[in-house]
């Protein structure tokens, strides 16, 4: 009997996050007896739509969809609904208002609460400096992505209670080490008073570490979303003080297992939340294995 | 080259193979290979998907070809897609215009942005690369400034027509592109302005001396490119029912140039044809569709597309410089001259 | 026995035969004149001899040994150099760099810039050229470029040197002197020279041997005192044109003043006062750089007017751009066809009708067949040879010139400005062109001709005016009052202003 | 032979202003504006940061300039950065070579990849755009295939030297770039090959007829560009102590071309200088540094950089075509001719 085919649409492979997710999809898919087809949209919404259409052409049995961005992603869901291919969304979800307006159906959403990660990190920072301790914060973000902006919002929200925390700069690290290295150095040059750098993506964090190190700014602390390497840095307790980890592999695993269940006729929860984990120097040693 | 050469050669003997034949043959080979490799590839529905997904690059490549014919380059076409895609949503959602009005307005904006490129290039003598680079920046920033990172959901469902309507199963963007290509090819081949575009690209000084209004031609080709960019913006916007500021800012610019060059258009101006450029764009769209259909690993995709295109163009170049002769060409020739 | 010999050379381009088994020989210390109609295959033969193009068949031997020339570089290494018909200087390199291109003087891997500069300076000075050798070639005048290219090759270490129409841009004096140089160097350094030209009189004075090609075959060969001009002319013109008859000149009824220019000055033009009448050919003569080209270009709207007035048919005319000039009934033939003459990749038909396409427009679309037929008619009337539906750049030099003349005829203009109209055109076609000029004039048009060939001016003009140092202030005199000597004398006279 | 021409005497008097002066002036203006806008901009430490961050683009622009001089284009330089960056890490971590050996090997690989471009272009006559497009794909795929898109951490700490060592406070990449630029400029200006590179760009047919070995030149310039790409790969790799397959695949390619064009290098070949290209690259690096120092919103950045560059180049073009005259130029000229 033919294997069931699972289509996976991911935004890019330049972010190791999605590389980890892709691997997990492939491994867990194989374990559950799926033939897995992964398509990468290169951060292009229209390309993602066309890839979804290609999957429909190929007659996949289910699609796991990680949106490039939420708004345009609704169209992909719409296509899949029309073709009666069950959609499972992961990580970054399509715009709920758009889904509702077009009366579209997503079988199950496995989501990371982007904002929550930012909140955790913000709280940790607050703890580190004290309720009214001083901090001048510069953000290495990705202002052109809604998800990254949500992480920033969470971080700021958590710190809103402290009037002595000032946000002075926001630069675009483009989720990429070299860009982050460049813009972080430049941000620190422009605002020598910065004492805390917050990076909302894992690759940016690595660039920011190198930037702070190479400028010789021992006084600057980094808080960031981190991967395995980042967790090790936290363990070393040098520049990187605390962060949040996401678990792409786990998300993918949950999703694949649930898709299997769905295809076997089981009912599913509409939403599964998988909040990021907070890592600080206390739990870094245990957490390191969970990080991708 | 363009028009008059297509008339019967006066020697009479032998058939003349159009310059586009080589790359068309390559496309055919890729299609056949695709059909053999996957039963899902050469189906009518997948062909429509392929063409629909290639439509925006097709439009950009069409506009880009006009610019390349004159020896210029338009780096801003991708960003114009983004700008017009968001502007259309703004007009409908924030200003409240009905979708056809918004669409027409947006096409005007695209053409205007392009014309502005043309005017600056013509008046200042600054290289097109720089001028359109600046316009690329401007057109990329405008939608981001308007919307931030957010996208604007379009609720006017009539807007779907542009990107999602189908006539006898053929998606509307494909029909629109086909009409545009035929119109463009006719324009280039049959009108005075079409010949003048090639004259400017072939030798701008000579064209000026022969009485060609080079300023008008320059402004016109960039305006056409801007207009084509706006068509792309509307198609993306309507397919996704969203105005989003990253529309058209991926591979589109690059593929619009590559498609034309693959199809025999020279970056130095004065050489090539609309048909060639469109075959080139189709080739790129086909390879990229095929790779997804065959589930080629994302790691390998850049390599595969690069190598196929290199092999294809090398074959084409060698053929036309007759360092290589095709058996079927010789055969055809013999057949025709026998029957003549 | 020392010589460069070609035997049984054949060559065809995309199936069309151009050379059909040519035998040809150059001997050191002699000058071999190569003649023939436009498209006869002279340039193609030279390119093959110089390694720039491979022959389809046939052998080349130097000193009895067979040579295979894969590139001009190899030919140069064997002491075979060539000046090609189309100027081959690199526009953005300096004069000195161009002079030494491919044979730079080096020391320890670095160029000896100063040495090459100094040498270039003295070299050019010895040819009477006062040019800053550190300037780029781009800004030089056409004759200067031609001189520099020829000089560069004369300076090389070549044992065999081929010169393809080296004097087309030069005036009579200049070409005589240049050819004298060539003669001297050939003898002094024992170089074998091949000289291609359409200016028979000039060349025959220095030639030891003569060969005429026609349709890719050798139709005439003679050496020493056997060389006869009349035989060469007959061989060139062949049966196609019948006997070459000296043009008949009859008195014409000259009309009223058509073009009136007063005190015209531009950025590079100092002052021109000129009147030309309907039904007259006005010749403009002067030394190279005296401002004739500038005058025509200013009239045509290619260069800005700073002062002065122009009237055409009594109405004031302010040149703005070429399009406007064409609209005002002016046609212009440029001096450098490769720079701003034809569009290289367009067919000859397209190039002919480029300025007049609008005439063939029906309901917004060009009547391609009609335009093509008209172009073909025009080109045939001036004896253009070659594949006219192929890119114009693949035509022979003289035929390219005819394509441009074809455009002028197509334009049917009232005021025709011709800058060196018969440059590179063979003697048969020349008389055809003179015939056309005469026909245009008989129709009551006004024609202004700039030429550096005094014979040409004297033959076709009704009156001739002299340019000096950017000025033209003296009244044109009827052609009867001019002779070649008088023309030169007038051009040399101290400036009037 | 006597002087028989009446051409206007070619002015020998007055000083000749180098073509690069215009864009250098623009750079100066941007610097001064930056200094006024932020006290943290024109500090020595920020200048080093600026140069260090611009070093990779500087290297790519240097290599690209060689290619552009011949009228070609190298689209693969950014991908070569990625490939070499990963290869270096592979050599050190997986093969176990010491870092200097790995570095030299990687430089060789870069030059080889470039030379391959050159050989294909020369032998087949396929446009450089297509050939280097294919190489871009190959060089982008190779590291992804090797590492599965993951990055390789480098543990040989000596490797830090390349990207992080400082001599009298000056970062090593900046010193290396400076040395490379001086060497390149000398090479172009003072050697025969340098002249031949411009000859090929000015008119390849003419250069061939003059006896220039055009094949050698073509292969050489692409090899240089590949070598410069490898320098970029080593710098990125060593600064982050990682080999990762996205290195150099952002704006680098684009800015390498833009920098050269801004500095007066023509895409059509034969025009420009190394110094000009480097000033152009510095201008771009400066604007991009300044925008981050001043914390210009990411949404506005493309617009700002585009507009500044357009204004700058327009000024430069107008100046050199003397549609515009600078007061200080007139002044300088007067001064010099007075003292003469
Ligand atoms: N590259 C080419 N491709 C096609 N045809 C060519 C090419 N070069 C020359 N020809 C053709 O070969 C023929 C001979 O040309 P060639 O230039 O040798 O003539 P020529 O004797 O030098 O004439 P002219 O006196 O006008 O210079 C012409 O018909 C020309 O069209
Ligand atoms: N607009 C221009 N500005 C500067 N230089 C120019 C311009 N147009 C042409 N030139 C260059 O100046 C050179 C010298 O001018 P040109 O040959 O027109 O002189 P001329 O005095 O008219 O010559 P002749 O009297 O021999 O026709 C031209 O060949 C050309 O290379
Ligand atoms: Mg010839
Ligand atoms: Mg002249």
TrEMBL record, chains B, D:
<feature type="transmembrane region" description="Helical">
    <location>
        <begin position="126"/>
        <end position="146"/>
    </location>
</feature>
<keyword id="KW-0472">Membrane</keyword>
<protein>
    <submittedName>
        <fullName>Sugar ABC transporter permease</fullName>
    </submittedName>
</protein>
<feature type="transmembrane region" description="Helical">
    <location>
        <begin position="298"/>
        <end position="315"/>
    </location>
</feature>
<feature type="transmembrane region" description="Helical">
    <location>
        <begin position="219"/>
        <end position="241"/>
    </location>
</feature>
<feature type="transmembrane region" description="Helical">
    <location>
        <begin position="15"/>
        <end position="36"/>
    </location>
</feature>
<keyword id="KW-1133">Transmembrane helix</keyword>
<feature type="transmembrane region" description="Helical">
    <location>
        <begin position="253"/>
        <end position="278"/>
    </location>
</feature>
<feature type="transmembrane region" description="Helical">
    <location>
        <begin position="167"/>
        <end position="188"/>
    </location>
</feature>
<feature type="transmembrane region" description="Helical">
    <location>
        <begin position="99"/>
        <end position="120"/>
    </location>
</feature>
<dbReference type="InterPro" id="IPR001851">
    <property type="entry name" value="ABC_transp_permease"/>
</dbReference>
<keyword id="KW-1003">Cell membrane</keyword>
<keyword id="KW-0812">Transmembrane</keyword>
<feature type="transmembrane region" description="Helical">
    <location>
        <begin position="48"/>
        <end position="67"/>
    </location>
</feature>
<dbReference type="Pfam" id="PF02653">
    <property type="entry name" value="BPD_transp_2"/>
</dbReference>
<feature type="transmembrane region" description="Helical">
    <location>
        <begin position="73"/>
        <end position="92"/>
    </location>
</feature>
TrEMBL record, chain C:
<dbReference type="Pfam" id="PF00005">
    <property type="entry name" value="ABC_tran"/>
</dbReference>
<keyword id="KW-0067">ATP-binding</keyword>
<keyword id="KW-0677">Repeat</keyword>
<dbReference type="InterPro" id="IPR050107">
    <property type="entry name" value="ABC_carbohydrate_import_ATPase"/>
</dbReference>
<comment type="similarity">
    <text>Belongs to the ABC transporter superfamily.</text>
</comment>
<feature type="domain" description="ABC transporter">
    <location>
        <begin position="4"/>
        <end position="240"/>
    </location>
</feature>
<feature type="domain" description="ABC transporter">
    <location>
        <begin position="252"/>
        <end position="494"/>
    </location>
</feature>
<keyword id="KW-0472">Membrane</keyword>
<dbReference type="InterPro" id="IPR027417">
    <property type="entry name" value="P-loop_NTPase"/>
</dbReference>
<keyword id="KW-0813">Transport</keyword>
<protein>
    <submittedName>
        <fullName>ABC transporter</fullName>
    </submittedName>
</protein>
<dbReference type="InterPro" id="IPR003439">
    <property type="entry name" value="ABC_transporter-like_ATP-bd"/>
</dbReference>
<keyword id="KW-0547">Nucleotide-binding</keyword>
<dbReference type="InterPro" id="IPR017871">
    <property type="entry name" value="ABC_transporter-like_CS"/>
</dbReference>
<keyword id="KW-0762">Sugar transport</keyword>
<dbReference type="InterPro" id="IPR003593">
    <property type="entry name" value="AAA+_ATPase"/>
</dbReference>
